Amino acid sequence: MPEGGCCRCCTGFIFTLGLTALFLWLSLRPDKPTLSIEEFYIPALNKTLNDTSNTTISFDFKLRNNNKDKGVYYDDLNLTFYYTHNLGLPVANFTIPGFRQGFKKSAHRIQTVPTVGLPWDEARREVSNGTGAVFRVDLKTRVRYRIIGVKTKRHTIKIGANLTVKDMGALVKHKDKGVKLSYAPIQ
């Protein structure tokens, strides 16, 4: 064997093994699901309605799995709604039962939940003066991914977003899109 041939062969093997490991890691790493509130409606804040006794919150929650060839298993999804002037006191809670979502799939969960302890006079005043009432939605869940037939360990997801409601009682949208929940730390 020529001089340095064994060393060159071992170095090439280690380099190839490292590149293979890097490409495998990049291709098997899952992306987090995209979660958003597409619709958010509070009938009691709709100024065109004469009846303000309907103190529920209706929402359309969208879950999108952008992964190619990776399914997502959701544990129960716990949604908590707050009126932003008192983030210590939730005004509504809702739990979406856990489910499996296939790759490149979207799911919508449309629900109506009752509210508790919301200062309606203050919220109506904010809607009437044009600033809009701001609500906060926080979500907490755990997910597992299915990669090549194997389920991963559970990953905790804690996300949230602020939702502004104007005089029609509906969510203010930008470019006709919903509000994406952010993975930024929840305050």
Automatic annotation (TrEMBL):
Keyword match Transport: no
Lineage: Eukaryota, Viridiplantae, Streptophyta, Embryophyta, Tracheophyta
InterPro entries cross-referenced by the UniProt entry: NDR1-like
Sorted UniProt keywords: Membrane, Transmembrane, Transmembrane helix
The keyword Transmembrane helix belongs to this UniProt entry's keyword annotation: yes
One record GO biological process: defense response to other organism
Protein name per its UniProtKB record: Ndr1-like
UniProt main location, coarse: membrane
Chain segments annotated as transmembrane: 7-28
Coiled coil: none
GO cellular component: plasma membrane; plasmodesma
Localization of this protein: Membrane
